[in-house]
Amino acid sequence: MLARELAARAVASLPSELDGRLVLDVGCGPGHYAAAMEARGATVAAVDLAPAELGPSDQRPRRAIVADGARLPFASGVFDGAVCSNMLEHTPDPLPVLDEIERVLRPGGWAWVSWTNWLSPFGGHAIAPLHYLGPDRGLRVYRRLFGEPTGKNLPYDGVWPLHIATVLDHVRSRPALELVRVEPRYYPALRALMRVPGLREVVAWNSVLELRRTPDRTSSADRGGRHRPGPAGTAGQ
Q1: Binning pLDDT at 50, 70 and 90, where does residue 158 land?
Q2: Left if phi > 0, otherwise alpha if psi is -120 to 50, otherwise beta: which for 110?
Q3: What would the pLDDT profile of 57-91 be if each residue is shown by its tens digit?
Q4: HEC secondary structure over 116-137
Q5: Are strands 22-26 and 177-184 parallel, antiparallel or unpaired?
Q6: 182-215 burial code (b ≥16 CB/10 A, e <16)
């Protein structure tokens, strides 16, 4: 229930009218975001790397595709918008996912991207808050104190450290992506905190980017310079 409510809230904040639009859901999981966007009239292509994350075959998103978020099986410039919710931290090489989002958006298209930054209180997922000791040491200390962690998101096996600065630097380096806004997902009124390096890594908890594909430049991805990394694409929702 909470996941569906979060999805509905996020979709309500998207920067564009959805009716009649073609939208991509990267790392879709069981399809809460896809369903919320379809309820507002969008046609949604939902992508996840792990078939198990899509749920039972009769309950999957209507246009579910098993694919790598860093190697999307779509032509360039075909989507009006893209959503990627809490997936980036669940891939060892997340930045090429942003490159692919840039590539498949049409000029003027938008993207809404969220993730749990590593240094937030819940950044370590299954071992939080011991991830503040580092992913390796934190896992060792957790096992010594509590035994084997439960859940699937262990450091370097389901969740990887990802920092706000890393994502912002990469977005700003992309030739055809405009950073429209960045804010803490759960308290957007405090977006000024995202201008303070260091502090933002701890207090943001979960970060949101609004991006726009610039209409007047051609990205290196469109010129054939696409990076081909390891797999990516499982959502944390």
Answers
A1: very high
A2: beta
A3: 666 778 889 999 999 999 999 999 999 999 999 99
A4: ECCCCCCCCHHHCCHHHHCHHH
A5: unpaired
A6: bbbbeeeeeeeebeeeeebbebbbbbbbbbbbbe
Q: Is 190 in a helix, a strand, or coil?
A: helix
Going by C-alpha positions, the residue among 69, 66, 27, 28 that lies closest to residue 227 is 69
Contacts of 68 (CB under 8 A, 6+ apart): 49, 231, 232, 233
89: Cβ–Cβ under 8 A, 6 or more apart, which residues? 115, 116, 117, 118, 123, 159, 160, 161, 162, 236
Backbone angles phi, psi at 97, to 5 degrees: -65, -40
Residue in 62, 122, 71 with CA at minimum distance from that of residue 101: 71
pTM given for the model: 0.88
- Residues 186, 9 contacting (CB under 8 angstroms): no
Q: What is the pLDDT of residue 227?
A: 38
Cα separation of 44 and 35, whole Å? 8
Task: Name the token pair of 156.
Answer: 């370097």
